[in-house]
Amino acid sequence: MLIFKNLLKNPINNPLLLTSRVNTYITRYTLTYIRTNFTQAKMSTVEGTAATYTTPGSDFANVLKPTNFKIDFDAVKPSQLVLKALASPINPADLSQIVGGYNEPKRFTDLGTTPNDPVSVGGNEGVFKVVHVGSDAGSEFKVGDHVIPLLPSFGTWRSYATAEPKDLIKVNGISVDQASTISINPSTAYQILNQYVTDWDTKGGNDWIVQNSGNSQVSKFVIQLAKALYNVNVISVIRDGKPQEVTDELIKLGAKHVINESEFTKEDFDITKYTNGGNVRLALNGSSDPTVPSLVKSLSKNGTLVSFGVVGGTKIEYDARLQLFKNLSTRSFWLTANTYANPDLKKDTVEKLVEIYKTGKISDVPYNKVSYKAGQDLAKLVVDAIAESKKSGKQVIFYE
Ligand SMILES: NC(=O)c1ccc[n+]([C@@H]2O[C@H](COP(=O)([O-])OP(=O)(O)OC[C@H]3O[C@@H](n4cnc5c(N)ncnc54)[C@H](OP(=O)(O)O)[C@@H]3O)[C@@H](O)[C@H]2O)c1
After folding, report:
1. 174 part of a folded domain
2. What is the pLDDT of residues 189-208, one digit of tens each?
3. Which atom of ligand 1 is nearest to the CA of 335?
4. Which of 102, 230, 274, 340 is catalytic?
5. Among 169, 58, 65, 60, which residue's Cα sits nearest to residue 120?
6. 197 in a structural domain
7. Which of 91, 129, 248, 382 has the most CB atoms around it within 10 Å of its CB?
């Protein structure tokens, strides 16, 4: 009896418990081995489809076509991985790319393991699951890992893809909802907050940002990250006629004030009434619409106007006297250019955002989910989702 009690006190010396622990270990290892290798063996060929185009154009229904392909795992280059799409969004920049004159798309002849006619695949952002690792593809990625493309123009509107490890960033540990959109809007917000001001008043909380298109996805991440990382207050300017829920959502995310465009662009608008004399250091122009002169007017001395979106289509015009007497700067931000110039910066940005998501410091920004089922016409699904995005905002395709 005494021996038995002692064995329980010191399980490490207990051959019975040790054996059972080793057994559990072996079983778990065997199951993982079978899951990994058997899954790879079972799925020796997959049939994929992509939403593709050959000539640019804005008539998406005629420009986008489905291209089907097969990936035979035995014929995949040993240096490559096979990826199964989980989710890919439709962003404004994807549409500009298809229209032409913005971020040249790639021409693919290798969607599958047998050559296809040269096509460009729509989409720049998305999350994939690794389903096969080539024998010479290194040990960084394993079957089951969630990954996103490192560079733009990956062509993410496709149900399967092949890629080299160097082209991917691992995003394990966050939800598919978060990972599918981490690459562009949160990364844009994160880099803007770090690129132009490096000495935020984190202790005093007296720094401010004012932004137009203040209900966009980018703006929602600016609001959250500015508060969470640097204790910076954000004012969002939104276009008139929005329901109260839009303001409520922005305030819930952490915006200090939400102001309608008509109020913001009044001749006598005075931002100091909202900021209590705080330091408006950044004015973010995500739309290049008629609010730009008021954004500049709202900047404090030494402030910076950062333009990163052109959807409003107007010229960027403002009072030169303001720039002169307040020593204002005008800068532009383009994530694509930053990423091509410095891919490591992009990797670092995404890895930081993964950690921020994991700590729960920022919340998901909701969007509309569109579900793709194998065998459907993916190009048509995308075209319908583009039309729907005009009515109900950001659409993200989730693949079966
Ligand atoms: N430079 C970069 O690296 C970079 C990176 C990411 C995004 N962006 C740009 O940032 C902007 C926001 O992107 P997002 O994905 O967050 O978009 P989003 O969620 O779809 O939001 C679009 C925003 O633009 C506003 N808008 C649409 N048409 C407009 C017009 N004609 N005039 C004025 N405002 C208009 C919308 O206002 P309503 O709700 O009132 O329609 C909304 O606030 C886009 O222009 C995008 O191209 C640039």
Report:
1. yes
2. 999 999 999 999 999 999 99
3. 3
4. 102
5. 65
6. yes
7. 382
